[in-house]
Design brief:
Blueprint lengths: L2 E2 L9 E2 L2 H7 L18 H12 L9 H8 L1 H35 L1 H9 L4 H38 L5 H26 L4 H7 L1
Length: 202
């Protein structure tokens, strides 16, 4: 039975039975790799003992986790780069939300000034505007999470990998907190001054 193993220490290797291998390559002598199955609490002791006894014969011990990390170094580098770029994109997008919120509020100063003339307190107006944009932020975030889950679910299901739920939760909480802070600052800047002057100009 021949297979290509991915996502393991044997990735990139073709697995062939010894009989078939010797039938095709009868001149091959010895083995190049050995897999040592040892209890986790005794792995370091067994590794040091084998290295000490067989180092003169060229034996080099390596843990499976270290070998798998070496295989995935390039992939992890790309993932790290795109994570950083994605984080910068999220920050720019959230800052853009603040710019759009400020522009929207400036265009509605006349409406908000009329509401203040009718008896709305400035604090209530700020809360109203912030809640409107917070609803848009949270709705957009939920739609983005659903779309991302639909996009990555087939790959996660096929590879059997686990999603970094903790990291994603903190990331989305950070997006919400930063977005709310940006919306609040934009609201304060756009609503400063006398709103009644905007009613008079209209």
């Amino acid at each position: 039975m021949v297979g290509l193993v991915t996502g393991s220490i044997l990735q990139g290797k073709i697995i062939v039975s010894e009989a078939n291998f010797l039938a095709k390559f009868p001149d091959a002598a010895g083995y190049k790799y050995f897999l040592v199955d040892a209890p986790a609490d005794e792995a370091s002791k067994i590794s040091s003992h084998l290295t000490k006894q067989l180092e003169s014969r060229g034996l080099a011990m390596e843990t499976t986790s270290a070998r798998l990390a070496a295989f995935q170094a390039v992939q992890n580098t790309y993932i790290g780069i795109f994570t950083v770029l994605g984080g910068l994109g999220v920050l720019l997008g959230t800052a853009g939300l603040g710019v759009l919120a400020a522009r929207n509020i400036l265009e509605r100063r006349g409406e908000l000034g009329l509401m203040q003339a009718l008896g709305f307190q400035p604090g209530a107006l700020r809360l109203l505007v912030v809640s409107e944009h917070a609803t848009l932020l949270i709705t957009g975030l939920i739609l983005g999470l659903v779309s991302a889950a639909i996009a990555v679910w087939p790959n996660v299901r096929q590879s059997g990998g686990a999603l970094p739920v903790g990291f994603l939760a903190w990331l989305n909480l950070g997006i919400v907190a930063f977005g709310l802070a940006v919306c609040f600052m934009a609201t304060l800047l756009a609503l400063r001054g006398k709103l009644l002057d905007a009613v008079r100009r209209e």
